[in-house]
Amino acid sequence: xKAIILSSIGTPRNTSSEAVADYIRNYLGDKHVxxxxxxxxxxxxxxxxxxxxxxxxxxxxxxLSDLYGGELPLRIYGERLxxxxxxxxxxxxxxxxxxxxxxxxxxxxxxxKIQEDGPFSEITIFSLYPHHTFSSSISTIEPLxxxxxxxxxxxxxxxxHSYWSDKRYISAIVKRIQERLAEAxxxxxxxxxxxxxxxxxxxxxxxxxxxxxQCKKTAQLITQALPTGHPSTGLYFQSxxxxxxxxxxxxxxxxxxxxxxxxxxxVACPGxxxxxxxxxxxxxxxxxxxxIEVGGECCSLAESLNxxxxxxxxxxQLVQEAESxxxxxxxxxxxxxxxxxxISNQRYY
Length: 349
Hints:
Layout: E1 2-8, H1 17-28, H2 38-66, H3 73-89, E2 93-99, H4 107-117, E3 122-127, H5 134-151, E4 156-160, H6 167-183, E5 188-194, H7 198-206, H8 211-225, E6 232-238, H9 254-259, E7 264-268, H10 277-293, E8 298-301, H11 309-324, H12 339-345
Parallel strand pairs: 1-2, 1-3, 3-4, 5-6, 5-7, 7-8
Helix pairs in contact: 1-2, 3-11, 6-8
């Protein structure tokens, strides 16, 4: 028997202030997200971030859940995807969802669940983030990988991440875009990715992965795969919360779109495999409203892959390829010595 673990950051348990605060504490408390000593991270979160941002975050998650009948989309699509993938692979694998940052301690009960359901000859951790960076794939994979290696030393462990240039992934994203292009006319296609702090970008290059280039290559491949005569495309980054983050910011692109006479814009967010706060609300609601207010006609959002058959088949194929190699995927380990990262971070945190 084998197991596949769909790994992600997760989402708050619900939209209450307590649940959202727990989620923020757990996510930002990760050393891969804020690379400072734990006491400093805790002080930043408790004294600066939560007092200033919690009410706004609760309001955003509440507005998002209202669009989905009181539930959060990552929970809905995550479970549907698990069931679809389970149906696809049959009884050869057990499929699990693992969201590291949803609660105070999600890892311990999850490992206990794996122990109860096992033993497994092979376990594959599949990152639900196509692009590789500290605050997404690494922050979720590393703790899970370390625990699995400790508790199941004889089990073969595979890791699947960094499939941002895979032809099947690109094809699935392009299919979503084409569905929207068939429904309406657009002047421009904005390909948007979540921004990251520049210090994460620089440190990533130090350790052998370049998030900016990953996103740029994905955008290029999507553009090349679109049919002849498609609208112009552009690369953007969203959800930056500081000046020293990757640019260009999609939120600041609206005047330029109007100057170029892009009145109808379609936004695709290929970094989000499932609809979530950052694309459904921040793009589909907030950016849409802002664009109309400054003179645009529409700023529509291309749906994510969500629980589609395309995504389930992509996961199954990538897992099968990882298992067939009979060797571990290249390590994504971040050195345990965080001193260099911490020193670099002092100018930005």
